[in-house]
Design brief:
Largest sheet: 5 strands, antiparallel
Number of strands: 5
Number of helices: 2
Strand content: 25-35%
Distance between the termini: 31 Å
CATH architecture: Roll
Number of domains: 1
CATH topology: Nuclear Transport Factor 2, Chain: A
Radius of gyration: 12 Å
CATH class: Alpha Beta
Shape: globular
């Protein structure tokens, strides 16, 4: 639960350690991000991958019930390929 420790380019700083999914996704969409994939993550959590035309991609991790964003961070292309491989069950 470290949402407030990360800076996402194009999005204002997060005001707390977690955010309700709706509020988090509203900030991401207002910042110009779009969802490109989602699926299970470690520890029974849920991940969502976001893309932007200008900024690096973002991986967001949600609580197991998918109601709370608990962290989000920019990832490099190798991390994105690994995440997409896990989500889509096909490797590059």
């Amino acid at each position: 639960m470290t949402l407030d420790r990360h800076i996402i380019q194009g999005v204002p700083p997060f005001p707390s350690k977690t955010l309700e999914r709706q509020k988090f996704e509203q900030l991401m969409i207002e910042g110009g991000y779009d969802i490109i994939g989602e699926g299970p993550a470690k520890e029974n959590r849920f991940q969502v991958l976001w893309t932007h035309q200008t900024f690096p991609r973002v991986e967001a991790i949600y609580s197991p019930d998918k109601r709370t964003a608990i962290t989000a961070y920019h990832v490099d292309e190798d991390q994105i390929k690994k995440s997409l491989c896990l989500l889509e069950e096909e490797c590059f």
